[in-house]
């Protein structure tokens, strides 16, 4: 396979030659995360203008934002050798010092960066304040000192005032942050930035409706202000999760797409948009994005990965296998392949291993499970992602795929999700039992549910276990079915949820099945169970007939 497709690089070169002839355009590209675009132009500039230190600094900042500290350090040090604007690179080296918690070294470099500042330069002080505010070990006092220096230089612009609010915000003193942003908004009524910050505080406090109102006000003032659409996209996504209302996410996706349409083309922002859609589980939009970007992003290898995820989550499993195989094929640096990628690859290979009767080829099955198990072992944190992925698949009725995901997740008995992983694993097997993957599928389901109940009894596991035992339909399993339904009823009662409307149908099922089982075992218990059904549903004719038949039999005797 041709691993180097240069269409998009040529396209990006054209975009920058037309639109990024000065530092402001590069700074804008960096602000909006269009790092691939900015880097291409900066690499050209440091060759053609090796004496301009600020371009080395910009390149170092990009690498620092991409968590490439070694590369960032290299460019900052190169920038210090430049003739013009060399001092700014001390800020970059100081930021690395803060990341490495070398506070004295960082302070020394910040001092060097401010030694020869222009009398009107307040922005450099704010950059340093921001570095201290958001360092791994924040120093809010130092940040405030630099904000005050910026204020001395220029207090007639909103940025230093906002920086004071940012310190409160980072300290989670939301009331004080809100007070500062509100005052700044009144002081500078034509500036949108303090209004944005005020909305950010509302969002951080889960006051989503208030945040959206403020963002909408900003849109009405300036519909071309790109930043607000990103915040709306993030806020609606948070709100959707908070209220468990997927319809809110649609508005989030709409705004996030609008934001990306305004900031310019870039592979990096395409990837960032894809990450947003994956995080918020909008796989349909992810599939649309991949198809839209595919022909102009040929050398963006991550597009193979995103297409595989979209196809897998949308039930196109064989297409997913084709895409994930291509993604593995084009990767020159195998260390960039994530454990989750091995998971998708294994799951997709499983789908391709089906026999004509719907069961799986045993050899491919074992190989895929081994590969996916290795992915889990390489990254213990993957267990959480597995649980979430499995739940999503289960909710979307992809029961077979959900089973394999939970099978992997349940390898770790110390996982906080172990009990529910085993429950879902057994439930998935039960739900897929009409077209079994295994010859003993129901028995496998029972084993998994028994493990879940043994670890920690839950009413969900009792209910599904009862159904599995009912379907096994042996003398032993039917006796166990009764015990499971009774366990379900007792646990619901203990937790005070027996009167929840959500469990009414399940309780009717439980009492009905206990009644049916006991008609030839314990008639009094059977009648009592059917009477419980009538208490829950007085119109239940089946239960009424069973009670009447029992009374008739008693009278005749």
TrEMBL record:
Key word Lipoprotein present: no
Repeat (TPR) residue spans along the chain: 192-225
SUPFAM superfamilies attached to this UniProt entry: TPR-like
Keywords tagged on the record: Repeat, Signal, TPR repeat
Superkingdom of origin organism: Bacteria
PROSITE patterns (alphabetical): TPR
Residues spanning the signal sequence: 1-20
Record-linked SMART domains: TPR
InterPro entries, alphabetized: CellSynth/LPSAsmb/PSIAsmb (IPR051012), TPR-like_helical_dom_sf (IPR011990), TPR_rpt (IPR019734)
Name listed for the protein in its UniProt record: Tetratricopeptide repeat protein
Organism: Paenimyroides aestuarii
């Amino acid at each position: 396979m041709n691993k180097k497709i240069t269409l998009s690089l040529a396209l990006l070169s054209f975009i920058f030659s037309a639109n990024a002839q000065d530092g402001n355009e590069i700074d804008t590209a960096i602000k909006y995360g269009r790092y691939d675009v900015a880097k291409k132009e900066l690499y050209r500039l440091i060759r053609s203008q090796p004496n301009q230190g600020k371009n080395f600094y910009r390149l170092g900042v990009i690498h620092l934002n991409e968590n490439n500290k070694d590369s960032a350090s290299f460019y900052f040090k190169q920038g210090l050798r430049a003739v013009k604007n060399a001092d700014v690179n001390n800020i970059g080296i100081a930021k690395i010092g803060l990341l490495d918690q070398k506070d004295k070294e960082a302070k020394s470099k910040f001092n060097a960066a401010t030694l020869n500042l222009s009398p009107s330069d307040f922005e450099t002080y704010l950059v340093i304040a921001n570095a201290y505010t958001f360092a791994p070990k924040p120093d809010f006092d130092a940040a405030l000192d630099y904000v005050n220096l910026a204020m001395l230089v220029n207090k007639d612009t909103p940025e230093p005032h906002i920086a004071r609010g940012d310190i409160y915000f980072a300290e989670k003193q939301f009331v004080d942050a809100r007070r500062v942003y509100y005052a700044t908004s009144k002081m500078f009524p034509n500036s949108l930035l303090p209004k944005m910050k005020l909305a950010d505080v509302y969002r951080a406090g889960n006051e989503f409706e208030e945040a959206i109102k403020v963002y909408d006000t900003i849109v009405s003032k300036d519909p071309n202000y790109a930043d607000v659409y990103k915040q709306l996209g993030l806020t609606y996504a948070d709100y959707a999760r908070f209220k468990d209302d997927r319809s809110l996410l649609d508005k989030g996706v709409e705004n996030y797409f609008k934001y990306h349409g305004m900031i310019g083309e870039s592979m990096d922002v395409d990837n960032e948009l894809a990450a947003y859609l994956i995080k918020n589980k909008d796989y349909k939009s992810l599939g649309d994005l991949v198809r839209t970007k595919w022909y102009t992003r040929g050398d963006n290898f991550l597009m193979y990965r995103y297409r595989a995820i979209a196809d897998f989550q949308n039930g196109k499993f064989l297409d997913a296998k084709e895409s994930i195989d291509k993604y593995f094929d084009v990767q020159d640096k195998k260390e960039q392949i994530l454990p989750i990628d091995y998971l998708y690859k294994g799951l997709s290979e499983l789908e391709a291993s089906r026999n004509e009767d719907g069961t799986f080829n045993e050899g491919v099955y074992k190989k895929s499970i081994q590969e996916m198990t290795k992915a889990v072992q390489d990254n213990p944190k993957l267990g959480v992602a597995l649980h979430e992925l499995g739940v999503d698949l289960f909710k979307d009725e992809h029961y077979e795929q959900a089973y394999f995901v939970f099978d992997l997740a349940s390898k770790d008995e110390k996982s906080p999700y172990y009990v529910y992983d085993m429950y879902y694993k057994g439930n998935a097997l039960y739900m897929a039992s009409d077209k079994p993957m295994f010859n003993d599928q129901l028995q496998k389901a029972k084993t998994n549910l028994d493990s879940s109940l043994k670890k920690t009894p839950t009413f969900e596991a009792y209910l599904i276990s009862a159904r599995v035992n009912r379907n096994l339909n042996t003398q032993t399993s039917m006796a166990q079915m009764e015990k499971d339904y009774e366990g379900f009823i007792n646990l619901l009662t203990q937790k005070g949820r027996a009167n929840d409307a959500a469990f009414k149908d399940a309780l009717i099922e439980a009492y009905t099945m206990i009644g049916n089982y006991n008609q030839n075992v314990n008639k009094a218990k059977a009648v009592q169970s059917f009477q419980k059904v009538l208490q829950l549903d007085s119109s239940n004719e089946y239960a009424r007939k069973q009670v009447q038949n029992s009374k008739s039999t008693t009278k005749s005797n």
